[in-house]
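Sample pair:
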Amino acid sequence: MAGEPGPRVSATGLRDGRLAAGAATGVGALLEVDNLQTVLSTPAGPARVVDGVSFAIQPGEVVGLVGESGSGKTLTALSILRLVPTPPARIVAGRIVFNGEVDLLALPEGSLRHIRGRSIAMVFQEPMTSLNPVLTVGEQIAEVVRLHEGAGRRAAKARAVEMLRHVRIPDPERRAREYPHQLSGGMRQRAMLAMALACRPRLLIADEPTTALDVTVQAQIVDLLRELQAEFNLSILWITHDLALLNGFAARLLVMYAGRIVEEGPAADMLRDPQHPYTAALLRAIPRGNGRGRERLEAIPGTVPDPGALPPGCAFAPRCARVMDRCHAAPPPPLAAGPGRQARCYLLEGPRTAA
């Protein structure tokens, strides 16, 4: 079961599964993920969908986890909170240390419930699948406050209205009495944020929180999260396939492909000068919107590989325009790519024979 701790791995045994020993850990880190491995049962056998993922998030830091659908981003987030669907998935190894002392993978389920929602909250892509359609928005937010803080009904109701005001929902007293279907998509996502932040968590995991919204509302939600992050001194793990959303917001980026972090480092440096061909391809696929007529988007050829049938070398090699012979032989190790940066790419060792 995902709720059961996986095998413990020694600190020295983490080197091969860790992208950057220095970047993945940090003194005073709020969240430290070490060598996280999650396996999915498939008809062809077990597939490692989260493969040795390591990173850390500092207090008040915004970190972006970026990659295409099927890269393993959401399963990484669900693994952190031990919410992976069992079956078919299960966590088999790693440590997830919260606040420098609590290994979330070793906690009993009852103790973990006190952390979920109170210390670590999560917002999902589509609020209509997360909100209860038969309870008012105010009731659902108040329920979180009563559950985690033991507040009385009146105090919890007042907190619900206060949080709706915090997320900039107009006339929050009236909206608190409404049901999810009575709100627009943008307002439902704001209501989910209000619920997630009701108990003042220290870490917010936002899984594609703007994907189902139009561009204007997306920008409003991003601006709102900027304000809330500063107001509550939130740490945020923002999961997205859209690098443009994180420009100027995230301090660091983690680029994920086929279950592994293939590049990580300061966001500004990676957006200006990507070192992994996959990161560069994601950046080229961003619409520029220069207003000069129709724009041809640059697509990445091929698709993310089936996690149960990964190629023997670099998982990105079949789609890479800069592939070399050695890329097909073995997965590249993490290599230094600049100050505070690492990437899994043989190009960082210098060019050799092209394939």
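Residues 1-25 have pLDDT under 50 and may be disordered.
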